[in-house]
Amino acid sequence: MKRIAVIPNNSKDIGLVNTKRLVEFLNGKAEIYIDEAYSVLGLNVNYVAESEILDNAEYLIVLGGDGTILQRAAECAKRKIPVLGINLGKIGFMTEIEIDDMEDAISKFLQDDFTVEKRMMMKAEIRKENKIQFSFHALNDVVVSKVAGEKLIYMELSTDGVAVNRYTADGLIIATPTGSTGYSISAGGPVVDPCMRLYVATPICAHMLSVRSAVLSSNKDIRIKLDGEYGNADAVVTADGDIQGYIKNADEVIITESEYDFELIKIGEQSFYDTLIKKLS
After folding, report:
1. Is 66 a catalytic residue?
2. Choosing from 35, 66, 141, 170, which is the catalytic residue?
3. Please, what's the largest Cα pairwise distance for the chain?
């Protein structure tokens, strides 16, 4: 029997109707682990503390949208736990299984009729006065942006010590191929096949006439440094939408390819480009 952790999304699965439906379908076919906060549902599962949800799991099934997956991406990557996403959101590039197809998809999954697609992740460090303050991992993107209500920020982007460009902008997005269909595409960045290994650097609302996205090698480190020459305001650093910290003049964000790959379960023969056309018309 497969050991499966299930992550619901309260805001997208009202009354946890689809979570109950999934668990009832899995009962007797797999060992199921779910957060003890849902014990009031009286489901026939193993209830565990939220922090221990992945301790005994071989696989993770997420009901929600891509954002729900992103919340668990780094943890699953470190543990090498493949993730299957069931889409309850609006678009869902990683949560490809639509709710109407759930039982059919889960049946194939239980019969090992699936593949596992590896996606690169990024590791980022915030460096102040040449000292690393802390580090974190991201599946979609790392973004350096102005604090709400503040003026534009001035940044220098370099790769392996070689200057790429200077930006006067609201911010700068460094996206993985997986993240190319997220914030980056909204800012005018290109769509990239998610199985490639590279970075896309896309400025946000740049105050410049000649500026484009840059595609950079994942074999080289990426550095974003606030350019203190222009009297910068503070900037905020986010990873996959979550705030990681704030930086000031001359502080740096250093990005390298993570040692971990995110593993996404794929069921059926629908390609990324089929999904792209379907989701973005």
Report:
1. yes
2. 66
3. 65
